[in-house]
């Protein structure tokens, strides 16, 4: 059976690529995953979004048979991850799983070896390697040994290796963390292409913009629980149809301006720390006039004001609470990679 036939035949078995009920994983007294339900239809990009330590990677590891759940169950294309792990493993790909690339070999050699191991012929392996190196912008570096690769280049090679077989379901755990913007855009195109050619993708991301751009549906996870689920538009609508964005001219007026916003609009506001912008949901757009009058009476000058559709940042702040997450890099899509290095 070739890959395409394999994909079709597994997808006929059930309408869901992933179906999880009540997944739990406990580490000591820490319920890292605390009863997660997920339903991911075939042929879509599903985004899992959450702050550091929310439990995203732990969920993926359970779905990918790398970690046994303490409670609950999960099926991949209808196959139970605990009872049928061998079948499940044939249907999935996980980035990071080929960490054992050979340092002394070149990128081309590594990819050819992976292809051969997966049963591709000699010529086919060479073509596949060239194709992937081209796609991931590694052609220039292809002949150099891996020990001279930068972190970003390694990440790209790692993803390239995991895509040789193009399995029906692909888990991408923060696929673009640490990549420069140009490579990130290439990666987005690759992910879209994977779905257009029949795969289902579940990806976790630190970048709200990435989820907004790529995901058909999103689950927001916080402290081991799914706190919201839906399409991007549904999630945005859940925090109100319009939202106020406001910047004050003088930073010392921030606190006071925020109090006035909350008093006049009768809502809670959020502040994006980095850009010093006050954001608040708006039920009634007419209130803007009252707000402007109140701000002028308080002697507060504005730098910028707009009323717009909520951003995914606001959804995220509203759902997972204010403040703390901004330090983790959620303000205005300014997430940094965990190592704090640029590729
Ligand atoms: N092997 C382990 N032993 C003990 N605790 C763990 C282990 N793996 C994860 N945890 C804990 O489980 C919780 C969830 O971790 P997890 O890695 O799933 O979060 P995450 O959402 O992927 O976070 P990040 O965005 O930082 O990747 C955290 O509190 C973490 O410290
Ligand atoms: Mg993680």
Automatic annotation (TrEMBL):
Listed GO biological process terms: daunorubicin transport; doxorubicin transport
The keyword Transport belongs to this UniProt entry's keyword annotation: yes
Topological category with respect to the lipid bilayer: Peripheral membrane protein
Keywords: ATP-binding, Cell membrane, Membrane, Nucleotide-binding, Translocase, Transport
SMART domains named among the record's database cross-references: AAA
Similarity-based family: Belongs to the ABC transporter superfamily. Drug exporter-1 (DrugE1) (TC 3.A.1.105) family.
Pfam entry (one): DrrA1-3_C
Predominant localisation class: membrane
Localization (cell): Cell membrane
Domain of life assignment: Bacteria
Sequence ranges assigned to domain ABC transporter in this UniProt record: 18-248
Name of the protein described by the UniProt record: ABC transporter
PANTHER family xrefs: ABC TRANSPORTER ATP-BINDING PROTEIN, DOXORUBICIN RESISTANCE ATP-BINDING PROTEIN DRRA
Keyword Zinc in annotation: no
InterPro entries: AAA+_ATPase (IPR003593), ABC_transporter-like_ATP-bd (IPR003439), ABC_transporter-like_CS (IPR017871), ABC_transporter_ATP-binding (IPR050763), DrrA (IPR005894), DrrA1/2-like_C (IPR025302), P-loop_NTPase (IPR027417)
GO cellular component: a single term: plasma membrane
Species for this entry: Paenibacillus borealis
NCBIfam families the record matches: drrA
GO molecular function per UniProt: ATP binding; ATP hydrolysis activity
